[in-house]
């Protein structure tokens, strides 16, 4: 077969847009962060549950941007029964389906947490991926806003647990009933206005990104972003825009003052007044638990972009700034968010089922922790590498490796074809602390050499000859085979 034919059949190695490969350092850092989140959730009494990546498309319900086009916003396909299936858009809709199926057997309120990948068929961009990880906590079957207040406090505790210092984040709480009151007042009540309501919600949700003028444009005819992309607006008249903006600007110095300002905005709306009352209850609960010190605040700017929220909504926002590659200040903003969704489980059961919960954007939070210097960029020390000096003695080297593993020491046998220099370079790239060397001379004496790669790398920077000789004596030691485990442990302990 010719080289030309080989090239013509070669598959191009390319990663689909909006996806990312992850290396060992990123995976290790993520696992450490997930463990911290899991510990905090379990401290609050939440238990783990897992749902599949794939759901019937109809089960996603209001998550779909357009139900007439199942592939819009989600990755969908049909099975051999012509049923539409979709990769989960987030972790909340699958939970609602799961709870509805097992409703009678579950103890209620049902408190669960889930972690996993979700998929969105959207245009990728900076910080926007088609596959990303979320970590959720939800309480189903609790009608009282005490569950919402607790979720906001859990969000605060979780951010601190993973390494965000107090004072560098804030959990903002609002209530969709208040906004519903405003929307009723400007004539956007009823199913016939569902699309325009969603446009308004998404416009307000972008307040931190585009500012008040950007929101004003999105509430009106639309907005042209710096890239030249145009987003169609809600088409509201000027007086309606002014009322919506007054809602977003109702935050005052204290929770009581903010709640009073919101009461003025909703006017005579019964639903809006109910929402304001619930915010007052949440503020009281938060204060009683000691979280009204700036950690959890009432803030009307939080709306959440999905329409299925029915009551309190909350968002964890990072307040510190970092510099981008050009030295410009950048804020990470929201890394967690959620709220009450009393109608989601009810879609399956035909009866009201109260529920509330939130989701943490794992990848975004990890990026923020890296910016704070709270993440060790290393994946951890590599394994001890046993070099193969004499290929015909591979079985003997394998026995040395097995002995290390039996004692709980990460170890591997060099399986390449390189000579000693290549094997040493391999161990360096693996991040190994030490290698085990046994040539024919050592084997005849029943000994092994243990070379400390970390100490060896420091020899060149020794301040004087005396220090150099002392370090050199420790950088490569010879021990009896029977003492291999003890010798390796001594080296590993030196750099623990």
From TrEMBL:
GO cellular component: cytoplasm
Reaction equation(s) it catalyzes: tRNA(His) + L-histidine + ATP = L-histidyl-tRNA(His) + AMP + diphosphate + H(+)
Compartment annotation: Cytoplasm
Transmembrane segments: none
Binding site for L-histidine: 90-92, 120, 134, 138, 304, 308-309
UniProt keyword terms in alphabetical order: Aminoacyl-tRNA synthetase, ATP-binding, Cytoplasm, Ligase, Nucleotide-binding, Protein biosynthesis
UniProt-listed Enzyme Commission number(s): 6.1.1.21
Gene Ontology BP terms: histidyl-tRNA aminoacylation
Annotated InterPro entries: aa-tRNA-synth_II, aa-tRNA-synth_II/BPL/LPL, Anticodon-bd, Anticodon-bd_dom_sf, His-tRNA-ligase, HisRS-like_core, HisRS/HisZ, HisRS_anticodon
Top-level EC class: ligase
Gene3D superfamilies (UniProt xref): Anticodon-binding domain (3.40.50.800), Bira Bifunctional Protein, Domain 2 (3.30.930.10)
Aminoacyl-transfer RNA synthetases class-II family profile domain residues: 31-391
GO molecular function: ATP binding; histidine-tRNA ligase activity
Highest taxon above the source species: Bacteria
Pfam families to which the protein is assigned, alphabetical: HGTP_anticodon (PF03129), tRNA-synt_His (PF13393)
Keyword Ligase tagged: yes
UniProt-listed PANTHER family: HISTIDINE--TRNA LIGASE, HISTIDYL-TRNA SYNTHETASE
Subunit structure as annotated in this protein's UniProt entry: Homodimer.
Similarity remark: Belongs to the class-II aminoacyl-tRNA synthetase family.
HAMAP family: His_tRNA_synth
Record protein name field: Histidine--tRNA ligase
UniProt organism field: Alsobacter soli
